[in-house]
Design brief:
The complex is a heterotrimer. Chain A is built from ten helices and no strands. By secondary structure, chain A is mostly helical. Chain A folds into two domains: 47 residues; 209 residues, MetI-like fold (Orthogonal Bundle), CATH 1.10.3720.10. In chain A, helix 3 runs antiparallel to helix 4. In chain B, the strands form two sheets. Chain B has a six-stranded mixed sheet with strand order 6-7-8-3-9-10, sandwiched between helices. In chain B, strands 2-1-4-5 form a four-stranded antiparallel sheet. Chain B is built from eight helices and ten strands. Chain B is of the alpha/beta class. Helices cover 35% and strands 23% of the residues of chain B. In chain B, helix 4 packs across helix 5 and helix 7 packs across helix 8. The C terminus of chain B is likely disordered. Chain C has two domains: 44 residues; 218 residues, MetI-like (MetI-like fold, Orthogonal Bundle), CATH 1.10.3720. Helix content of chain C is 76%, strand content 0%. In chain C, helix 3 runs antiparallel to helix 8, helix 3 packs across helix 10 and helix 8 runs parallel beside helix 9. Chain C is globular and about 75 Å long. Classes of the chains: A mainly alpha, B alpha/beta, C mainly alpha. Chains in contact: A-B, A-C. At the A-B interface, helix 7 and helix 8 of A face strand 6, helix 3 and helix 5 of B.
Chain lengths: 272, 269, 279
């Protein structure tokens, strides 16, 4: 525990704004430089206009094709969201069971670790066979499986990270196992859970798109990206990829927002 | 609070051996503590003082012997919430405010909201942290966190207060100040206190009785009755009698093996 | 728990899980339940059917399936290993560069993180078409796949290398300053050794990611020689011969786990400290 008193009164409002801008500015600069160079290089050197379209072209296609791309993105996003929810819930449930019954942990952990090493992509076609390749459920399954492991492993680690002193304190209160869980283990696990959810949010979107490679509805984003790439409409494909990125980032950011609200108590020093 | 029983803590022939490393942490300990007594346990590393504290609190089971707290076996005393404990590390919950941290044992005892609120406010006043009720632990200094831990330990007015080097991580000035505060709190609540410490002057300053322990195997080397009057103050540390008592404790420690090599200090307390 | 006992427990659990497979299958086929999915010989072949499929040729006049699959596995392993090596080196280098400049960190980290939101599968075809002509003939085809594997590998390595290099004890850094040590010396004598546990933790993830990347990279590239190609092939025949796709998955799992185990063993050899028990 630190011996430092952290003052509630920060620097002036203006000072804080400058400091926050300082956090953001380098990234913006990098973005501007990269996009500028990209655009410039293609124009100046006629490089790869075939494969690597100009950012301005991608941006305009992003806009002009929005009627096709954006709803497709939403469709795939729903698949990702469903998988994210199912996988995360299953992960938390599994972590709770393993945390509660130590024997399960010894037997199952090596299996989970091995399962983590299995390329889930290989199972996408099988999920397609189970749930009908066109339906969104097969993609949800891929996303769910991808989300399950990080959530389970991290939540478990969080549940097990109560300090021995905290447990001694609870024993001095003759606390029941349930009370220890409720008052110590669960709150301690929350930061770990959110770290995992951030990872899972990105994986979910990727899982959905990967799943769509093996078949999906015609209005699914992954399918569109694929078919456009196959007929060499790379600008549209990249615009679709841009949609996918934005949605992945959106899901990630929502998790971050929920985290800020749910664990307001976490000291800012905790990193993601 | 403390009932009419003649002793609050009775330890009879308690022995504790830890199987790994064949360590005899405690051997044939006999100890009796009267109500409202302030007893310090002092000794070098490995003398078993922290182990003894935990045996009283039923956090460690003795290998043999009996422990009676408040006239009951230690286990029952723990189940009945007869004592509060303060560790060297404040062990506050980051996700609770100061007020909620203090309320923790009260919640577990099933107290109603109004009753809890009243008691928490009283405790905050006792440790003089009234304006920090809604702060979070990491916003407070180490000394303040320990005061919260003390407030929490006393929240349900236990007959017995166990303290395991609570001020060990603090600087000397904060320590001396908290010593005075602890004495004032003790005077107001009248609990019996068992206080583990490394510091001879702290032990003499706070206690009515100093229990000197020696290691390998852990046992009681002797007792020093501190006859300095209460309430004690800053001046008490400068009285000749204080120095005499400190010297007495020091001699007892030295005679019974304070000068052990660090490697010799066996494992667990 | 002693190693033998642990292995025994795990083996017993695996056997138990396999039995659960058959049990699930039996219950669902007897009752005819269709949730979550219909269970029949196609969707859940008997374990024995899958096992048998290894011994038989997938097509007439071809060697047994297992031989074919092992060849493909080695091909994919080659791509994954190359990708792993490239990605690990790039990731490590990026971590080293970034640790020396907070400015660079703030500028590039968001994009490094964001790079992982790009669905690699979507980019794969373009990468393949773009990279292949640039490679010498011997490396074409699988080289592009290695690049894709590297893409998935570099990210965890970068992030963890950065964190590991930053984890050096501030007191130790002060000590190095009293020796007027150059940045280079501090890097190699202090930061890098401190970062090893983190780096290996990432390498474990990266091992898996490289295999995934290799398989994903093969899908759009039309390469028949690897597991990705096998997956596409057998996917087409799934309704007739489901056990072949399952067999391929088993081999893919073996590859993934194999890479993981190799990294864990390397860690034990190099870091002479028990590896962390979680990712």
């Amino acid at each position: 525990m630190s011996g430092i008193v952290i003052s509630e009164r920060g620097p002036t409002v203006g000072g804080r704004a400058v400091r926050q801008a300082g956090e953001w500015l380098p990234a913006l600069v990098v973005a501007a430089v990269v996009i500028g160079t990209w655009e410039g290089a293609i124009v100046a050197f006629h490089i790869q206009q075939f494969l690597l379209p100009k950012p301005s072209d991608i941006a305009s296609t992003f806009w002009t094709q929005r009627h096709e791309l954006w709803p497709a993105g939403w469709y795939t996003f729903k698949e990702a969201l469903g998988g994210f929810a199912i996988g995360s819930l299953a992960g938390v449930a599994a972590a709770t069971l393993v945390g509660r019954f130590k024997g399960l942990g010894t037997a199952l952990m090596p299996i989970f670790i091995a399962a983590n090493a299995v390329p889930i992509i290989a199972f996408a076609p099988i999920f397609g066979a189970w749930f009908n390749p066109i339906s969104p459920h097969s993609k949800m399954a891929v996303a769910a499986v991808l989300c399950f492991l990080p959530v389970m492993v991290n939540t478990l680690r969080g549940l097990q990270s109560a300090s021995p002193r905290q447990l001694e304190l609870m024993r001095s209160y003759a606390a029941s196992e349930l009370e220890i869980w409720r008052r110590v283990r669960v709150p301690t696990a929350l930061p770990f859970l959110f770290t995992a959810l951030k990872v899972a949010s990105v994986l979910a979107m990727i899982g959905a798109i990967v799943g769509e490679y093996f078949g999906g509805a015609l209005n699914a984003l992954g399918v569109i990206i694929n078919s456009e790439a196959n007929v060499f409409h790379f600008t549209t494909a990249w615009a679709g990829i841009l949609v996918a990125c934005l949605l992945g980032i959106a899901l990630y950011s929502s998790v971050v927002l929920v985290e800020r609200v749910a664990i307001r108590w976490a000291p800012q020093a905790r990193d993601s | 609070m403390s009932d009419a029983a003649p002793t609050v803590v009775r330890i009879e022939r308690v022995t504790k051996t830890f199987p790994q490393g064949n360590v005899t942490a405690l051997q044939d300990i006999d100890l009796e503590l009267a109500p409202k007594e302030f007893a310090s346990l002092i000794g070098p590393s490995g003398c078993g003082k922290s182990t003894l504290l935990r045996v009283i609190g039923d956090l460690i089971e003795p290998t043999s012997g009996t422990v009676t707290v408040n006239g009951k076996p230690a286990r029952q005393a723990r189940n009945d919430g007869d004592y509060g404990i303060v560790f060297q590390d404040a062990v506050l919950f980051d996700w609770r405010t100061v007020a909620k941290n203090i309320a923790l044992p009260l919640e577990m005892l099933g107290w109603g909201r109004a009753k809890r609120k009243a008691r928490v406010e009283a405790m905050l006043e006792l440790v003089e942290l009234g304006s920090f009720a809604e702060h979070h632990p990491w916003q407070l200094s180490g000394g303040m966190q320990q005061r919260v831990a003390i407030a929490r330990a006393l929240a349900f007015e236990p007959a017995l207060l166990l303290m395991d080097e609570p001020f060990g991580a603090l600087d000397e000035m904060t320590r001396e100040r908290l010593n005075l505060e602890l004495l004032s709190i003790w005077a107001q609540t009248g609990s019996t206190v068992v206080f583990v410490t490394h510091s001879i002057s702290e032990a003499v300053f706070l206690s009515s009785r100093v229990v000197v322990m020696s290691p390998r195997p852990g046992r009681i080397a002797g007792f020093v009755d501190v006859d300095l009057p209460y309430p004690r103050s800053v001046e008490t540390r400068e009285e000749p009698r204080f120095f005499e008592l400190v010297t007495e404790v020091r001699e007892l420690l030295r005679k019974r093996g304070e000068h052990l090599l660090p490697e010799e200090a066996a494992a667990l307390e | 728990m002693p190693v033998v006992k642990r292995v025994g427990v795990v083996a017993a659990t695996v056997v138990l899980l396999l039995c659960c497979w058959e049990l699930y299958r039996w219950i669902w086929t007897s009752t005819g339940w269709t949730w979550p999915f219909l269970v029949n010989d196609t969707s859940m072949p008997h374990l024995w059917t899958i096992a048998k499929a290894f011994g038989q040729p997938a097509q007439v006049n071809q060697p047994a399936l297992i031989t074919v699959l092992l060849h493909k596995m080695l091909f994919t392993a080659k791509e994954a290993a190359a990708g792993f090596a490239i990605g690990a080196v790039i990731g490590f280098a990026l971590g080293v560069i970034l640790v020396h400049s907070r400015l660079l960190q703030r500028g590039f980290l968001p994009y490094i993180v964001g790079s992982q939101t790009v669905p690699i599968l979507a980019i794969a075809p373009m990468v393949v078409v773009w990279v292949n002509p640039k490679l010498p003939t011997g490396l074409q085809g699988w080289g592009a796949v290695a690049v894709i594997a590297a893409y998935l590998t570099f990210f965890p390595v970068t992030i963890n290398t950065l964190r590991g290099l930053q984890s050096a004890n501030p007191r130790a850094l002060e000590l190095m300053r009293t020796y007027a040590a150059s940045r280079w010396t501090v890097l190699w004598k202090l930061r890098v050794p401190a970062s090893l546990p983190y780096v290996f933790s990432a390498l474990r993830l990266a091992a898996t990611a490289s295999v995934v990347g290799a398989i994903i990279g093969e899908l759009p590239s039309g390469l028949q020689d690897g597991l990705g190609g096998a997956i596409i092939n057998f996917n087409q025949y799934y309704s007739i011969e489901p056990q072949e796709l399952w067999a391929t998955n088993v081999i893919a799992a073996v590859l993934g786990i194999g890479f993981f185990v190799i990294v864990v063993l390397a860690e034990r050899a190099i870091v002479r400290r028990p590896p962390e028990s979680s990712t």
